[in-house]
Specification:
Helix content: 40-55%
Mean pLDDT: 90
Radius of gyration: 19 Å
Low-confidence stretches: 207-213
Shape: elongated
Structural class: mainly alpha
Strand order of the largest sheet: 1-2
Order of helices and strands: EEHHHHHHHHH
Length: about 210
């Protein structure tokens, strides 16, 4: 038998996306390009780990909203909200396995722009056109609204400012742009979040469930 992709080399690696064995070269070359790799593939996890260990610093002009500044202390103070944003994305990915880095970035960028303009006193909202990032956009926006409501009820004071929500979204975007590998179907950023923000067992064990309209 030969690899079903190249039809030349012997297949030695089981590909969960294909449901059959493929050769190591095709696994490396087509991973997250033509093959829609699931996050729990052992070869994908190893590749993401290798890429992270050998990553070069990104160019300054690739940093999202590079003129926006905020302190490390601010991120630490708002870490529960960062965790909430990350787990919201991961819970959505559990329900929608086709979510990739690009779709997550699309949702985060659109929401960041909404809160950027709100911080200037202007209301502007343009969710992504594509269904998947649009649905994630709604999930993240719902988390933000609920987090602000709970914070206000606990403290009796005003909750997170629009400018603070904007900064947290920019923080996640910057992390995402640093962690992704640029492949068309990359899930390196989502894998990074999964490794650092473990989901509660009851959410992590949920099977795929379509929640798009």
């Amino acid at each position: 038998m030969s690899c079903p992709i190249c039809e030349k080399r012997p297949p030695k690696r089981f590909c969960p996306a294909k449901g059959e064995k493929i050769c190591a070269i095709c696994c490396g070359e087509e991973r997250e390009v033509t093959i829609d790799c699931p996050l729990d593939c052992s070869y994908l996890i190893a590749a993401h780990r290798y890429e992270a260990e050998h990553r070069k610093p990104g160019a300054a002009d690739e940093i999202p909203y590079r003129n926006v500044e905020f302190s490390v202390d601010f991120i630490y103070e708002r870490w529960p909200q960062v965790t909430g944003l990350a787990t919201t994305i991961l819970a959505f990915q559990i329900q929608n396995r086709e979510l990739d880095d690009a779709a997550a970035f699309s949702a985060l960028e659109a929401l960041a722009e909404k809160y950027r303009t709100l911080g200037t006193g202007i209301y502007y909202e343009r969710p992504p056109d594509a269904q998947l990032p649009r649905a994630l956009y709604g999930q993240i926006a719902g988390f933000v609204d609920e987090a602000r409501k709970q914070e206000s009820e606990r403290s009796g004071f005003a909750s997170m400012k629009d400018s603070e929500v904007f900064q947290l979204l920019i923080f996640l975007l910057r992390v995402g742009k640093q962690e992704t590998n640029g492949r068309p179907r990359s899930r390196a950023f989502l894998g990074f979040l999964r490794a650092r923000f473990p989901l509660p067992a009851e959410i992590a064990k949920e099977g795929p469930r379509i929640i798009l309209p």
